[in-house]
Amino acid sequence: MRSIGLSSSSPGDPGVECPPDADDAALVGAVAEGDRNAFAALYDRHVPRVYGMALRIVRREAEAEAVVSDVFLSLWGQPQRFDPSRGPLRTYLIVLARSRALDRLRAGATRADHTEAAATDSGQSHADREKATRPDQQAMQLERSALVRAAVEQLDTKQRTPLELAYFEGLTHAEIADRLDEPLGTIKTRIRTAMSALRGVLRTLGGDRDGMP
């Protein structure tokens, strides 16, 4: 999954190094002061779950990435909207991700309705529209799914398992570490290594790197 840009700090960025166990509420407070390192810490901590929730709803990697961008840009631009007295940040971000993902689904349905109405006005039948669009779309989706499945199957089990837990079940790195009974640092390393290996396998198989999370 591509970063939205603000998650990586450069030497000129404001902020100080954040301890890995820093409290979410404290980090949000630092974000309100413009601390990019605090934002990066929150992004790294919560992005797997946010992405997993979005992907389960929109079913497309590109759309899920757009939801992730919406959620974290909202956190960066309006951190005061998070009220720690109403619950943890994780819940706040998941609820926001669900809302943004559903908005995208509704927007997509509206566009589809407008397209169908325009086609009807032009005299094109529903069967003609299905014949013109669905085979190519289905073929592309099937080809892409087959490539991803083949690529994932070629990963080592130690790489594949945490990757699937992060990006398809929406678990955080800490939750994956607990479930697999492995050190947190080991899990992070395996996920990074798995993503790199998966991109390489997809290139070998003819897949499109841009579609990877």
UniProtKB/TrEMBL annotation:
Matching entries from Gene3D superfamilies are given as: 1.10.1740.10, Winged helix-like DNA-binding domain superfamily/Winged helix DNA-binding domain
Which stretches does the entry tag as region Disordered? 107-137
Q: Which residues lie in Basic and acidic residues bias regions?
A: 107-116
Provide the RNA polymerase sigma-70 region domain boundaries. Answer: 42-107
A Pfam family of this chain: Sigma70_r4_2
User: Which keywords does this Swiss-Prot/TrEMBL entry list?
Assistant: Sigma factor, Transcription, Transcription regulation
Q: What GO biological process terms does the UniProt entry carry, in alphabetical order?
A: DNA-templated transcription initiation
Does the record bear Transcription in its keywords? Answer: yes
Keyword Thylakoid set for record: no
Domain (RNA polymerase sigma factor 70 region 4 type) ranges:
147-198
What GO molecular function annotations does the UniProt record carry, in alphabetical order? DNA binding; sigma factor activity
Q: Which PANTHER family match?
A: RNA POLYMERASE ECF-TYPE SIGMA FACTO, RNA POLYMERASE SIGMA FACTOR SIGZ
Which family would the database say this protein is a member of?
Answer: Belongs to the sigma-70 factor family. ECF subfamily.
According to UniProt, the name of this protein is ECF RNA polymerase sigma factor SigK
Q: What is the lineage of its organism?
A: Bacteria, Pseudomonadati, Planctomycetota, Planctomycetia, Pirellulales
Q: What gene, per UniProt, encodes this protein?
A: sigK
